[in-house]
Amino acid sequence: MSRGNKLASENAKEFRVEQREAREKAVDEAIRYLRESGLPVTKKAIAEELGCHVNTLQQPYMRDILLRYEEFQQSAKTEKDVSMLEQRIKKLENILSHSRNYNARLTSENERLRRERDEYEDRYRRLLGRYQVDVGKMKIGF
Fold first, then answer.
1. Helix 3-37 / helix 43-50 crossing angle, nearest 10 deg
2. C-alpha to C-alpha distances, 89 to 75, 76, 98, 128, nearest whole angstrom
3. Confidence (pTM)
4. How far apart are CA 141 and CA 127, in angstroms?
């Protein structure tokens, strides 16, 4: 490798190191700002603060930076997810309970209406029978 290429390679490495350090400081500042503002610390929010795409935060060196913060550590995230899921389960159980109660009321009402309909059909059949008998008597002349 020539001296010029070697120097350019070293300069490029130094430039990348400086860029990473600058990005690390920017991430620190963005997270500090989000926390102080009371906003959720998410990758999307950090990316918006940095003015970059969320996929930039998926790069290995960026993931290493983010893992320093509790919001991105697996155990904290898992506990948070579990508590959110537990709340969601309770909400869904409550909705299911209300649905079952409503279903029971509708079933009861349906049964009551079915009995009422059967009573009306029975009355109708009796009335129809009497009418047919009465009309038959009139035709025959009883």
1. 120
2. 21, 20, 14, 57
3. 0.45
4. 21
